[in-house]
Amino acid sequence: MGQGSEIEPEGQIYTLNLLERLHEALRDFGKTKDELYWRIDALLRELRNPNLHEVELTTAYQIELWDRYGNSHLRMVIAATSSITIAHAAFDAAVKQYAAEHLTLRKGAMVLRDHNP
Known about the structure:
- It is a single chain.
- The protein is α+β, with helices and mostly antiparallel strands.
- It has two domains: 7-52; 61-115, no CATH class.
- The chain has helices at residues 9-47, 84-97, and strands at 61-66, 74-81, 103-107, 110-115.
- A four-stranded antiparallel sheet has the order 2-1-3-4, with helices on one face.
- The radius of gyration is 27 Å and the shape is elongated.
């Protein structure tokens, strides 16, 4: 055998140990992945429940994110709730998360709060 092609026994044992640990980690990953799949599946099945409370968007308090150019186009509704207390808390959180963006808290056509940096 040429020089450098011979692997020391300790090196082989170390490599085998690494392979065994990798195999064990992959087994653990498979178990975790399966558990996560079933948890997500159960939550999705709950969403199909016809008895879930729906937020009526026409009467809800909405936290809205507006475009940066002219502020005339709604980009997305960040949150909608029927509770004014939750709406104010959600608006405060949105202002922290999107500090550089134009945000409004509205109920219908009425703007209750406006953040326009």
